[in-house]
Amino acid sequence: MTPAALERSKSWLSKADLRPTRQRLALAALLVGDGENRHVTAEGLHDAVLSTGDRVSLATVYNTLKAFCDAGLMQEVTVDGSRSYFDTRMDDHPHFHFEDSGQLTDAPLAGLAIKALPEVPEGYEIARLDVVIRLRRKR
Amino acid sequence: MTPAALERSKSWLSKADLRPTRQRLALAALLVGDGENRHVTAEGLHDAVLSTGDRVSLATVYNTLKAFCDAGLMQEVTVDGSRSYFDTRMDDHPHFHFEDSGQLTDAPLAGLAIKALPEVPEGYEIARLDVVIRLRRKR
DNA sequence: CTATGTGCAAATCTTTTGCAGGCTA
DNA sequence: TAGCCTGCAAAAGATTTGCACATAG
């Protein structure tokens, strides 16, 4: 982990009043260490952290990702019933989901324009608008 | 099950070359017997069929719903990581998801207008566009 | 009759939880 | 020190699967 990545990870955690433990720093470094947005699954992140040599249990990865979400640092994105993805980008934006690889990426928000939304039922308000563009490899 | 519902269920199954077994007819009657669209979970449908007096195992409900999807009679909608919903309506249309009750309903397609979509990556085409409007009860 | 379905229980897979011990502030 | 964190293993759900039996065409 570079000094810059360490710094970024620490300030990311302190933004949410989360203690900079060894495990959280290791995970944060993989998530925001380079300043890019990430879309990870718990298992994928666990594999990634193990391959850096750090030891973090899978249960802690789950608990930590959930803690990051609760703290408002990430959001959970549901794209297929079997796995959850965790996204470091917090604004409402569309996603591309590649059906062949299962990969999830941000879709440029610029290209999406929603002109109107269906009328929301009485007594409710919009919590979030999820847009997933499912992509299939062209034959 | 009314004669009309039985008829509708049978023709719905035959549309997809699925044999009209007792279990499939019981499930189909609940799904399309009245001509309305339905959004069900496997467990919810299982409860419903049991309450009509028919006996169908939960595993068969799962297998049958999956068979209906494979046959192009329904589509699976993923709205939160923990459960799958199965929708008898086959066109691309937005959904309302009520966070308090977990209920899923169709949102009027009329109200949604998408002006433009992000450019699709080279070599891929859009398989489906999922739009889920998450609703929270107003305080 | 033969290929398809079905039921049941056990297996899988992802995610959560309980609890004893560890570590940050 | 006090309270928050972590690890592990076991629990909890949702869904799938293996296999023997049943049934539609």
Shape of chain A: globular
Helix content of chain A: 25-40%
Largest sheet of chain A: 3 strands, antiparallel
DSSP summary: helix tally of chain A: 4
Termini Cα gap of chain A: 41 Å
At CATH level 3, the topology of chain A is Arc Repressor Mutant, subunit A
Number of strands of chain A: 7
- Strand fraction of chain A equals 25-35%
Instruction: Write the element-wise H/E pattern of chain A from the N-terminal end onward.
Output: HHEHHEEEEEE
Fourth-tier CATH superfamily name of chain A: Winged helix-like DNA-binding domain superfamily/Winged helix DNA-binding domain
Just give the CATH class of chain A.
Mainly Alpha
Average pLDDT taken over every residue of chain A: 91
* Rg over C-alpha atoms of chain A, rounded to the nearest angstrom: 17 Å
CATH architecture of chain A: Orthogonal Bundle
Class by alpha and beta content of chain A: alpha+beta
Low-confidence parts of chain A:
none
* Order of the strands making up the biggest sheet of chain A: 1-3-2
Question: Could you characterize the architecture of this molecule?
Answer:
Two copies of one chain form a homodimer. The first copy, chain A, has 139 residues and is α+β, with helices and mostly antiparallel strands. Chain A has a single domain, classed as Orthogonal Bundle (Arc Repressor Mutant, subunit A). Chain A is 34% helix and 27% strand. Chain A has four helices and seven strands; from the N terminus they run ααβααββββββ. Chain A has helices at 3-15, 22-32, 42-51, 58-70, and strands at residues 39-40, 75-80, 83-87, 95-98, 104-106, 113-116, 124-137. In chain A, the strands form two sheets. In chain A, strands 1-3-2 form a three-stranded antiparallel beta sheet. In chain A, strands 5-4-7 form a three-stranded mixed beta sheet, with no helix packed on it. In chain A, β4 and β5 form a beta hairpin. In chain A, α1 (3-15) crosses α2 and α3 packs across α4. The longest helix of chain A is centred in the N-terminal third of the chain and has 13 residues, at 3-15. The N and C termini of chain A lie far apart (41 Å). The model of chain A has no long low-confidence stretch (mean pLDDT 91). The interface between A and B is large, with 42 and 42 residues. The structure holds a DNA duplex (25 and 25 nucleotides).
